[in-house]
Amino acid sequence: MGFARYIPIAFLVAGLVLVQQVTQHTGTTFYLTQLTMAAYYALVITGLCLLMGYAGQISLGHAGFFAIGGYIPAALTTYNLEPLREKWLVQTLDAAGLLTAGQDLYGQQVLHVHPWPSCILALLLTAGLAFVIGMPVLKLKGHYLAMATLGFGTIVYRVFLAMPLFGEADGISAVPPFPLLPGVTVSGDFAARTENYYIAFGLLIVGLLFLINLVHSRIGRAFRAIHGSEEAANAMGINTPRLKLQAFVISAVFAALAGVFLTHYNGGIGPSEASVMKSIRYVAIVAVGGMASLWGVFFMGILLNFMSLRGMFGTYDDAVFGVILILIMLFAPNGLLRLHLWQRMRRWRGVDKPKSRTE
Amino acid sequence: MQFCLCHGGLVFFMTPELFLQYLFAGVTYGLIYAIVAIGFNIIYNTTGIINFAQGEFVMLGGMTAISLHHYLPLPLAIAAAVAITMVIGALIEMVFIRWLHNPSILRMIIITIGLSILIREGALHIWGEGVRALPYFNGNEITSIVVLGVGVSPQVFWVLGVCGLMVAALYLFFKFVPLGLVMRACAANRVAATLCGVSTKNMVTFSFVLSAGIGAMAGCVVSPITYSQYDGGTNLAIKGFTVAILGGLGNSMAAVAAGLLLGIIEAFSISVVPLAFQDAIAIGILLIILFIRPHGLFGNRSAAMLKEF
User: Is A178 helix (H, G, I), strand (E, B) or coil?
Assistant: First the structure.
């Protein structure tokens, strides 16, 4: 234990720098764009890994949280408050320095909310919503939980699709860059490509460190106890409803954070980000990564999203994830890395008797 | 019509004609939801799993019938489409589910979700994104039969008749036909049924065939009204599940009542909220029911433990 668990992080950082250098010297920096986007999606997926793999609760609605994280800053930072300048709320916000004034393409005065307050608002709202939704939903088990979260995701999708404020089917475009710190900006500019690559992976590594520490703590062990058997965990004095809710809120905030950053990076967001297919894709990748394996899920998250974003699956994009889900669940329900091929071979040859599985 | 009136949310000031129109629409949709819910229940009762691909059977039935109708007369096309969907249901069970040893619920959920994606993507590649429809069984879009002073499309009566017949036939099947009795025995107690010489595995396959069949049939009769599209299944699955939960999971006759209830609520909700939010209402009901009465409106907690058709 101890520092041993951080060693992979060092290798990861070295690998990331290597990739960046290689793309720079071979003139293929365009790969960095998809890697950056894949990193943000991987952030959602590692967060979901905490909920699914460790706490053992399925969520088919995480694209909903991602979309809330993306849509709220997108709407706030593009909605023109200039005509409402006389209203007291706008004046208070302006006095508090939360607004930015500027000019649009035609030289008209525009007034928007600054990305920072909108980001914080999005995260707080997501955490609050996850808390309110999670309290009743997480009492459910099995099919009920799956359907309830699927229902939540569908409602979020319908709401974004139906409301003119969120651009209906077109989504929101022309979202401004996000000035994180002076000189560090999340934007899709070609010039800022390398910078954003490091921002994305920096954020991802911070999230990963948080999760690694969490799952190795007392709370993490409690999560695994819940996954094993909720009744037994209860009997051992673990406050299971509270812990499940914590995992749900944390993973929702991870999804929203990824939504905020990716929306500023892409300069826009559309309703497809909230669709059920996206939620299912996240679940599929967590399953491929091995459910309760942060590193497995992390690498699969980067790899599969990168391949999908590069268009390697062609028109079969969604179908590929369906096939992955089925194959993994049929043949390796504990993830590819735990397939134990050698044992399986022996089992097939009839040397070992199969262990009965009662998950 | 008095459409402006009802858009103010004033259901009480609705004219009787409009009220009846909404009622017919609600009953039509409600019966389709009930059929999907019964499909869920049949599989749930024999296997204890929820088949998330249930809505896809409805879509497959409608789409296959539309394609076959280019070559075959309508009744034959529908019969063939139902048969093909039943074969697909059987194949799904035999290839993906039959040989799993004691799978966990999470695993089964994910597998059936994966199957629903595969079927949907397959349909997208075969039929494209376009919206299709079977022709009206009698007359056309503007034919209407006057009932109690309102014009109703004859297709609505086809839906009512076919779905009503299916529900009645299923009731009799599970009550009197030996095969139906054996399936109920499996649902009540798998081990005991096995000891009595029943092949529970075959019964599971048969439950997939049966629910694929009724889903496809529903998909055919409703296609002229609601149209068929490759991604129509997900929505139906969520609504059907809502209905199954409302009636109490596993209880098919209660599902019919719950289906009618949801269909009618949905139809009248159009007068209060914009159409775009109509689906959100069904899902909102699902969430509320899950939170306060997960054993359904008609069931009770202890009865929910026993599985019965």
Answer: strand
- Position A341 scores a pLDDT of 57
CB atoms within 10 A of CB B236: 26
User: Which tops the pLDDT comparison, B294 or B238?
Assistant: B238
Map residue A188 onto helix, strand or coil. Answer: coil
The domain ranges of chain A are 2-348
Q: Tell me whether 0.90 is exceeded by the ipTM.
A: no
Name the residue in chain B with its Cα closest to that of A135: B291
Q: Which of B60, B62, B58, B53 is nearest to B35 (CA)?
A: B58
Look at residue B8 and tell me whether its pLDDT is greater than 50: no
B104 pLDDT higher than 90? no
The beta-carbon neighbor of B279 closest among A139, A144, A158 is: A158
Q: Give the pair of three-digit tokens for residue A139.
A: 């009492």
Cβ atoms of B89 and B246 within 8 Å: the answer is no
CB B36 within 8 A of CB B55: yes
d(CA B229, CA B213): 19
Chains A and B: how many Cβ contacts under 8 Å?
A: 120
Question: What residue type is A10 in one-letter code?
Answer: A
Residue B309's pLDDT is 42
Which of A150, A284, A324 lies nearest to residue B238, judging by beta carbons?
Answer: A150
Smallest Cα–Cα separation from A69: which of A169, A149, A155, A160?
A: A160
CA distance, residue B276 to nearest chain A CA (Å): 6
What is the chain B residue with the closest CA to A276?
B234
d(CA A25, CA A34): 18
CA-CA distance, B211 to B39, in Å (whole number)? 4
Question: For residue A172, what are its two tokens?
Answer: 């929101």
Could you give phi then psi for residue B228, rounded to 5 degrees? -120, 140
A235 close to A157: Cβ distance less than 8 angstroms: no
Residue closest to B118 by CA, chosen among A326, A275, A315, A331: A326
Each residue's pLDDT tens digit, B181-218: 888 888 888 888 888 888 888 888 999 999 999 999 99
Q: What's the rounded Cα separation, in Å, for the pair A205 and A246?
A: 21
Whole-number Cα distances in Å, A234 to A74, A150, A223, A239: 42, 27, 11, 7
Task: List the structure tokens of A47.
Answer: 């967060």
- What is the average per-residue pLDDT within A309-327? 85
Identify the bridge partners of residue A186 per DSSP, sorted by sequence position: A178
A99 phi/psi in degrees, rounded to 5:
-110, 155
Q: For an interface test with A, give the residue of B56, B97, B100, B106 to mutate (most A CBs within 10 A).
A: B106
Cα torsion for B265, B271, B277, B283, to the nearest 10°?
Answer: -10
Tell me the C-alpha distance between A259 and A116, whole Å. 14
Give the separation between CA B236 and CA B33, rounded to whole angstroms. Answer: 7
**Which residues of chain B neighbour A230 with C-beta distances below 8 Å?**
none
Nearest to A357 among B102, B121, B284 (CB): B102
Amino acid making up residue A316: Y
Residue A354 per-residue DSSP state? P
- Euclidean distance between CA atoms B234 and B228, whole angstroms: 12
- Taking only the tens place, the pLDDT of each residue in B135-190 is 888 777 777 777 777 778 888 888 889 988 998 998 899 889 998 888 888 888 88
Q: Does A316 touch chain B (CB under 8 A)?
A: yes
- The whole-angstrom separation of Cα B14 and Cα B27 is 18
Fold of A2-348: ABC transporter involved in vitamin B12 uptake, BtuC (1.10.3470)
A6: which DSSP letter? G
Q: What is the pLDDT of residue B83?
A: 96
